[in-house]
Amino acid sequence: MGVDAGPRNCYTKQDCIEALQEGEEELGEEPTQHSYQRLDILPSAATIQSRFSSWKAAKAETDVIARSVRNWI
What we know:
By secondary structure, the protein is mainly α. The chain has 5 helices and no strands. The chain has helices at 5-8, 13-27, 33-39, 45-52, 55-72. It is globular, with a radius of gyration of 12 Å.
């Protein structure tokens, strides 16, 4: 069991989505896994990937939510 094992379980999918959105705001574009890691935002890229089964799946879900919000406004 690694050091990150405890906190990884504390982050919800919503936490991960919000972190990806924060990363996008900071970068001015969709974050790649590598660019996200350089931002030093929590949860970590590994945690996000674990929570959604892949980085691509996490970004896809984040995009769906963002489109829903834009269409609602």
